[in-house]
Design a protein that fits this description.
- The structure holds two protein chains of two kinds.
- Helix content of chain A is 70%, strand content 1%.
- Chain A is mostly helical.
- The radius of gyration of chain A is 23 Å and the shape is globular.
- Chain B is mainly α.
- Chain B has a single domain (12-109), classed as Helix Hairpins (Orthogonal Bundle), CATH 1.10.287.3510.
- Chain B is built from three helices and no strands.
- Chain B starts with 11 loop residues before the first helix and ends in a 13-residue tail after the last helix.
- The chains are: A mainly alpha, B mainly alpha.
- Chains A and B meet through helix 1, helix 7, helix 8, helix 10 and helix 11 of A and helix 1, helix 2 and helix 3 of B.
Chain lengths: 539, 116
């Protein structure tokens, strides 16, 4: 008993140097509390809560910008539980920008008909999920991995069914929670083997332990189970085939700002987490096939998964008539494109990760997410505006939109062409960059480039169909009186897509500088602090 | 570590086999049950299989020994998983209740308004 107490020791109290890098996450925590106590001060608090949430997200964004160049920011913190680097920073900035956009969108869509008093819960859940997604980018420990994924998932399940009397919403959240609970349980079972095989929860240390030696036939079988579990758990979040069934149903059943939030934030966070974990492990193995672990097979599985995911997403979208379902399948396809880039784990021709930890896959995915955020936010905003006026999510009701609301139709056209990946919109830059990066590695990665190219042709049909209905199908429906704030948001997103295409050089410079991952292989001379990071200082 | 099972002494292998059995039972429950609460019980079995694994690995393979070398990573992980399972059950039961209010059943086969 005494040695147990000695091992537990004093409680671990982090200093400012450890807290400062996570200023954005701390602001989110403060905002969650502030949103929850707002109704004690203000009656009819929905709008007030939204404003508090918007202010909190803005503060988090600014604080993240301010601390980015402070000393001691880059590196492992909290005894290796969390890691902060340029990659995590840029993801956090993108996420906070996106969540601010979603809150603005809430003002134009649900603000007027949300049940009075539901505001505090809604924004507390939204920001809790955001906190989880923000931490997913910083996780360097299996325990933090599980906790951050669950922190992102649990509020999302509730958000999907937030409209309590809505039958379809209830069904969507039921499907979401059942799929999510099963896949996360399987993931935890898999991770328990990863711990058992290598004796540490630190992802970096696991990579080095893999490089240290072979683990035998039985060990390899357990490693396969462990990695399968990880792929199941994260694959569900990414909505990779065959774990994508929840995605269209949840997206259709949830209210539209929740759908928007899940389509970019949830999938982006999962991809960022996957990049971090797999690249850290691959760095331990030197980005080359190794006796202790078949990195090439893992890269192959991820690559095939990405190729199948984008094909299934695009083929599924072809027959959809509901705009939310169409965009759901489209988001599956885009997640598939990004998943293809995650397969860059083995060095074939290109240098996967440079000396400074700059990962080409991380750069490509950050650039893609930065653009995808505007495309999806804008497309869903236009869909929400039309839904508010016509009460329909069916794209046949978009007939004659070019006459009924020319600006909304023009914005939607920009988003659709950008989602296809056509110039002169930023979607082209993002997709071309992704294919370029895959092509530079040569080998079977060329097949992925071909699959993405082929899928772009499939996707042409259903995106252009929306544009065709808006401009060419006649309709005598009355003109739409769209909400000016929502229209402003859509125009801002469309302008961002054009500007990002014109400002290609500065944008690519940002993502080039911010693709840097903090990998433990660079700091191998430091003693690994993998043990008892939770139980505190050992005496 | 993965040598043949020795009879007479309870070791790591016994716990791993127990955990594997729990996992398979849980997965079978998930696949067979049509009642949402039954599926949730299957999920709890899978999570407990992970807990048995974590604690057994910590006790038999990665404990670090007595005194200052003691390591509790796996045990602490298991405690977090227990709390996580409770949180997940709370959220899931609330969602099932909401589903019941709308559909008067928690049979997942009836959740067919949305076609994936």
């Amino acid at each position: 008993m005494t040695h147990l107490l000695a091992a537990i020791g004093l409680p671990y109290i982090p200093g400012w140097d450890e807290l400062r890098p996570f200023a954005a996450d701390l602001w989110l925590i403060v905002t969650i509390v502030a949103v929850l106590i707002t109704p004690f001060f203000i009656t009819r608090s929905n709008i007030a809560c939204a404003l508090v949430a918007l202010a909190g997200v803005t503060l988090a964004f600014l604080s993240q910008l301010l601390v980015r160049n402070s000393p001691h920011v880059i590196g492992e913190h909290f005894r290796g539980l969390l890691v902060m680097d340029q990659f995590a920073m840029l993801w956090k900035l993108l996420l906070l920008l996106f969540v601010a956009g979603v809150i603005l969108m809430w003002f134009t869509t649900t603000a007027s008909n949300m049940h009075e008093g539901d505001g505090p819960e809604f924004f507390a859940l939204l920001l809790s999920a955001t906190l989880g997604m923000s931490l997913m980018a910083s996780t360097s420990n299996l325990l933090m991995l599980v906790l951050s994924v669950e922190m992102a998932s649990l509020p999302s399940y509730v958000l999907a069914g937030f409209r309590k009397t809505h039958r379809i919403g209830a069904e969507a959240s039921l499907k979401y929670v059942l799929f999510g609970a099963v896949t996360s349980a399987v993931m935890i079972y898999g991770l328990s083997f990863l711990y058992g095989l290598y004796g540490t929860l630190q992802v970096g240390a696991i990579g080095h332990a893999m490089a240290a030696g072979a683990i035998g036939v039985g060990g390899n079988a357990l490693l396969a189970v462990a990695l399968l579990g990880l792929i199941v758990g994260i694959g569900f979040k990414v909505s990779a085939v065959p774990f994508h069934f929840w995605c269209p149903d949840v997206f259709e059943g949830a209210s539209i700002e929740v759908t928007t939030f899940l389509s970019v934030a949830s999938k982006g966070a999962a991809l960022v987490l996957l990049i971090r974990v797999l690249t850290t492990i691959a760095a331990g193995l030197g980005f080359a096939p190794h006796a202790g672990m078949s990195l090439a097979a893992l890269a192959g599985v991820i690559g095939v998964m990405g190729a199948v995911t984008c094909t299934v997403g695009n083929l599924g979208a072809l027959v959809q008539t509901n705009i939310k379902r169409l965009l759901a399948y489209s988001s599956i396809a885009h997640a598939g494109y990004m998943l293809c880039a995650v397969s860059l784990l083995v060095r074939h021709k290109a240098t996967i990760v440079g000396e400074d930890g700059n990962s080409i896959a991380a750069q490509a995915i950050l650039l893609y997410l930065a653009v995808y955020l505007f495309m999806n936010l804008g497309a869903f905003t236009v869909a929400a505006l039309i839904y508010r006026q016509t009460g329909s999510e069916d794209i046949t009701h978009y007939a004659g939109l070019s006459r009924r609301s020319p600006l909304a139709a023009a914005c939607m056209t920009v988003f659709m062409f950008s989602l296809i990946g056509l110039p002169p919109f930023a979607g082209f830059v993002a997709k071309f960059n992704l294919m370029w990066v895959l092509g530079t590695n040569g080998g079977w990665w060329w097949a992925l480039v071909a699959v993405i190219g082929l899928n772009t042709i499939f996707s042409l049909y259903y995106y252009v169909r929306v544009v065709k209905i808006m401009y060419l199908t006649p309709s005598d429906a009355p003109a739409l009186n769209v909400n000016p704030l929502g229209l402003g948001l859509a125009v801002a997103c469309a302008a961002a897509l054009v500007l990002l295409f014109i400002g290609l050089a500065p944008l690519s410079r940002v993502t080039t500088n911010y693709g840097k991952l903090y990998l433990t292989s660079q700091t191998q001379q430091q003693p690994a602090q993998s043990t008892a990071m939770i139980t505190g200082e050992r005496r | 570590m993965l040598a043949g099972i020795q009879f007479g002494i309870i070791g790591l292998q016994h716990y791993l086999v127990l955990a594997a059995l729990l996992f398979v039972c849980g997965l079978a429950t998930i696949l067979v049950k049509r009642n949402a609460i039954g599926i949730l019980m299957g999920v709890e079995l899978v999570l407990n299989a992970a807990n048995v694994n974590l604690v057994a690995f910590n006790r038999f393979a990665h404990g670090g020994g007595a005194g200052p070398a003691l390591k509790l990573d796996g045990q602490v992980f298991a405690i977090f998983v227990i709390v996580l399972a409770a949180a997940e059950a709370a959220v899931a039961l609330a969602i099932f209740l909401n589903f019941y209010n709308n559909f008067s059943t928690i049979d997942v086969e009836r959740a067919q308004n949305l076609r994936g």
